[in-house]
Design brief:
Elements: H1 2-34, E1 40-45, H2 60-70, E2 76-79, H3 87-101, E3 105-109, H4 112-116, H5 121-137, E4 141-145, H6 155-172, E5 175-177, H7 203-220
Parallel strand pairs: 1-2, 1-3, 3-4, 4-5
């Protein structure tokens, strides 16, 4: 009888404990769902995103990081932009960058140097397609930055160049971010002497613009 009583106490205790364990597991799962992994944005770009002619903390990418920090927006940024980069170079570097940083989102800001150097538009477009496909294979959300070149490259080439970004975005079904210098490039007071790169005064404007463009897409696809 003593043994049976002790066994009865054990069973009663386990029946009491089981709901608590189930509740504990449910609480743990709920907590994890309420705290998704912080999105990470990898910027694959050229001198326009690499703070050319400026200190790194003066560039729009660093300023955008500061905006997100001040506004408590949980987005991590990895700036992999380098001056002079073409779509050839970006495509060559991308696999290593994806493996190293494992981003949730990729912004491709390339093509400007292809255009300035007169590279074939078909090759640039093919490179952009390959970069988007590589990111998609790794389940990374891709955003493509629209690009423009000066009008002195000829109307036909300029048109083919400009249309390439919209074409890639449509065919790959990804977001196309409007050209971030559209309100800057036409104002001498906001451009460096070369007429190609935005100066220090323009960087906060670009950062604010990119904040409005990027933030909703990144947070809504995380």
């Amino acid at each position: 009888m003593v043994f049976q009583s002790h066994r009865h106490i054990q069973i009663t205790f386990l029946l009491f404990l089981l709901p608590l364990l189930v509740f504990s597991d449910h609480l743990h799962a709920t907590t994890e769902n309420e705290n998704p992994q912080k999105p990470k944005l990898l910027i694959l770009g050229d001198s326009l995103s690499a703070a050319y002619g400026l200190k790194q903390h003066e560039g729009w990418v660093s300023l955008l990081q500061n905006i997100w920090k001040d506004e408590s927006v949980q987005i991590e940024v990895v700036n992999a932009a380098i001056s002079g980069e073409t779509t050839d170079g970006g495509l060559a570097r991308l696999p290593r960058l994806l493996e190293q940083h494992r981003p949730s989102h990729l912004l491709i800001e390339l093509g400007g140097n292809d255009g300035l150097q007169g590279h074939p538009v078909t090759k640039m477009r093919r490179n952009l397609h390959k970069m988007v496909s590589l990111a998609k294979q790794a389940e990374i959300a891709v955003l493509l930055q629209d690009m423009e070149i000066p009008t002195n490259y000829g109307r036909k080439y300029q048109s083919l160049f400009s249309d390439s970004f919209e074409t890639v975005a449509e065919e790959q079904q990804i977001t196309l971010i409007p050209f971030f210098l559209q309100d800057v490039a036409t104002k001498d007071s906001l451009m460096q002497r070369d007429g190609i790169h935005p100066n220090k005064a323009a960087q906060p404007m670009i950062a604010e613009y990119m904040n409005k463009q990027l933030t909703p897409h990144i947070l809504n696809t995380n």
